[in-house]
Amino acid sequence: MTTSVKEFSTRDWAKVDLNECPQIVVPPPGPRSKEYHRRCTRYFKGLSGQVRLFPVVFEEGQGCTLVDVDGNRYIDFSSGIYVTTLGHCHPKVSEAIARYANKLMNAHDFTTPIKTLLVEKLAEVLPGDLNGFQFYDAGTAAVEAGMRVLRAATGRNEIVSCYYDFHGKTYGAVSLGQIRSTVYGRVRAPGCHMVPRPDTYRPLWTKPDGSIDTDRYIAFYDEYIDKATVHDVAGFVLEPIQGWGGSIMPPDDFFPKLRRYCDEKGLLLMADEVLTGWGRTGKWLCLEHWDVVPDVVSLGKGFGNGFPVTCVAVREPYKESFERISASSSYGGNPMACAAALASTEVILEENLLEHCIELGEHCLRIMNEMKDRHPIIGDVRCKGALMGIELVKDRQTKEPFVEAGEFVYQHAFRNGLAWIPAGHILRMSPPIVMDLDTATKALEIIEEAIGAAEKALM
């Protein structure tokens, strides 16, 4: 028997005792954190921005909470950067991984019973005819494989992506994103193009009434493909909601219009749902919010709730393309990975977490809109399920980014027991979708207090 959303929201396993968390016993980063970090970074390099801004050292996690080595308890409002969608160490997922760690760790790409069960379940829950699959161990590997599918399925080479997209850190994936690196000679891979996409807060083209003119974007794509490519475009690769860019939401009519445009022009549409998929926004795929089925989709992050497993799914007409791209990999689809992904999928179904995620998002959006009314540096708030953003600006009219405030708020809230994600002037939030509403309210109270402190200190 399934559990209702209301019943699930009070389950002991995921519910946070707000009398005990957050709990700061030593000002973080504490002495043990500093010592571990000093020892580790003597050898370990290339840290993310969030670690550089707040080098705390975590020791354990349970549900929606994290504990550092100094004994401080935090509300996790990042899900390990969009990964532990079901909370840390969900009992069913942990047990499934442990079972196969003791039974069969790897059999290359041979068929296994657990892989069979997983692909059958994926074909059951995914929309449309997305029923061809291959597995990998990192999001960027899935994106690169998806790019190869686009080229194999069409016989064409060029690919179009969008400003501020993020698709990974290998050369092909980097060439689709807004990242500049001397490692790649600051040159995109041949055949990779970028175009603007509509941003509901910072639109490039608007109608006389101020609404976003999505038709202008589509018209620009058509002109760009005609004038700036060699007419060898395989398709588009886009994030449904841009994560690295700052939880940037598209207008509701954008993806349906892009889907129609691709169909009219014989182009394929690939959705990079590594960040947005598998319950993060309250749907299996974020594109389902707009009734759009992509031709190719990459899945990752929350797909295995923290275990490194990713997937490329393709529609029926294109699944034989896997046979032409040398699709297999050393770790993709290993039994532990398949067990983690299957268990995560079953948890979402059994605990009605898609419905709960929608409820969580609606609850948080109401609070964030109230916060916006009280704080002049909040320029915009956005939310789709458990994928949220708050954009801080120096002036609401000019929309000038307030980067100093973003860093201040991030560090201030972290010191008060909120583990989360920085993105310059945009505050990114991605709580586990098992989080109860009271805990989400507390997390947003910590953020609002930090925003108030930033206004006093910086304005």
Percent helix range: 25-40%
The helix/strand class is: alpha/beta
Largest sheet: 7 strands, mixed
Name the helix and strand elements from N-terminus to C-terminus, one letter apiece.
HHHEEEHHHEHEHEHEHEEEHHEEHEEH
What does the overall shape look like?
Answer: globular
What is the CATH top level name of the largest domain?
Answer: Alpha Beta
CATH second-level architecture of the largest domain = 3-Layer(aba) Sandwich
Which assembly state applies to the chains in this document? single chain
The count of β-strands is: 14
CATH homology group of the largest domain: Type I PLP-dependent aspartate aminotransferase-like (Major domain)
Give a description of the structure:
This protein is of the alpha/beta class. The chain folds into two domains: 5-77 and 352-458, Aspartate Aminotransferase, domain 1 (Alpha-Beta Complex), CATH 3.90.1150.10; 91-350, 3-Layer(aba) Sandwich (Aspartate Aminotransferase, domain 2), CATH 3.40.640. Helix content is 37%, strand content 15%. It contains 14 helices and 14 strands. The strands form three sheets. A seven-stranded mixed beta sheet has the order 4-10-9-8-7-5-6, sandwiched between helices. Strands 1-2-3-13 form a four-stranded mixed beta sheet. β11 (378-384) and β12 form a beta hairpin. α5 (91-101) packs antiparallel against α11 (335-350) and α12 (353-374) packs parallel to α14.
Compact description:
The chain has 14 helices and 14 strands. The protein is α/β, with parallel strands linked by helices and 459 residues long.
